[in-house]
Amino acid sequence: MKIKILIFTIISVLFTACSTYMNIPKLNSMSELEYRADVKYAQLSNDITLAYSDEGDGEETILFIHGLGSYLPAWEKNIPELSKKFRCIAIDLPGYGKSTKNPHSGLMSFYADVVIEFVNKLGLKQVSLAGHSMGGQIAMVAALQHPSVVKNLILVAPAGFEEFHPGQKQWFQDVMSVNLVKLTPYEAIETNLATNFYNLPKDAHFMIKDRAAMRTASDFDNYCLAVSVSVAGMVNEPVIDKLDKLSQQTLILFGENDNLIPNRYLNPGRTVDIAKAGATKIKNSKLVMVPKCGHFMMFEKSDIFNAQVIEFFGK
């Protein structure tokens, strides 16, 4: 009986995998990706067209910045709820999603300048920045460079709390090559995304399918370049020594079971230690550690994230 159950389970898994492979759409361009929200476009300098969504009309405006390799649907389980109380704007960074894919430096200061130019383009005087992972580091750089524009910070498993010596920085740049990103097989795409979670939820599977579908897009090569240079950008423009200069009220959220921070190969240790060390340096900060939760905290534990943001703004 047990053997029959095992065989049935194996067949079911194989069938599911095969059906997933067959259902991957072929994209001519990454602009064909399907988003829940209506997409708008802002024309910025340096021939950059920034794709964004804009929902809600509250007194506070929150600008959401995704992480490495991601896109604005990363906030899919947050904006529908938060837009009931706040104006919620999510962007695709240059090189990602539906935004233009022109080659760029990948530096955090480059992205921060784009964010501030975008804010000015929309005629907004002040915004609160919500950033996930790399987006968190971008948000901090923007806050440091433009404190009058960035009112508050919401940092979700932010990059930038971890320190790397020169050899480790070089390792990152050597490993995260354009070809590594470009030639990632389907199985690795699924594994990579699953690593972001304590328990991969079913409603996150669209990210796997989208990432697999991107491979046929004409602008996929430049997306791969953006991912590669963004890794170099993170390690070459660290913020760890500037955290004490942040003046904004800051909400910091980490999953206790984050598999990516700290880097398990270079700095093995506990996520909570990195989180506390970074939070201690930010004067006006509150740290929330979420149990049974991975790196993609705002998606995996969206109810906690949403409630914490509402409480943060006193709503």
Could you please describe the fold and organization of this structure?
With 315 residues, the protein is α/β, with parallel strands linked by helices. The protein has helices at residues 2-22, 79-82, 108-121, 134-145, 166-175, 178-182, 186-194, 205-213, 220-236, 271-281, 297-300, 302-312; strands spanning 40-44, 48-55, 61-65, 87-91, 127-132, 150-156, 249-255, 285-290. The protein has one domain (34-312): Rossmann fold. The termini are far apart.
What is shown here, in short?
The chain has 315 residues and is of the alpha/beta class. Helices cover 40% and strands 16% of the residues.
Task: Name its key features.
315 residues, 8 strands, alpha/beta, eight-stranded mixed sheet, Rossmann fold, 12 helices, single chain
Write the layout of secondary structure elements.
Blueprint: H1 2-22, E1 40-44, E2 48-55, E3 61-65, H2 79-82, E4 87-91, H3 108-121, E5 127-132, H4 134-145, E6 150-156, H5 166-175, H6 178-182, H7 186-194, H8 205-213, H9 220-236, E7 249-255, H10 271-281, E8 285-290, H11 297-300, H12 302-312
Parallel strand pairs: 3-4, 3-5, 5-6, 6-7, 7-8
Antiparallel strand pairs: 1-2, 2-4
Helix pairs in contact: 3-4, 5-9, 7-8
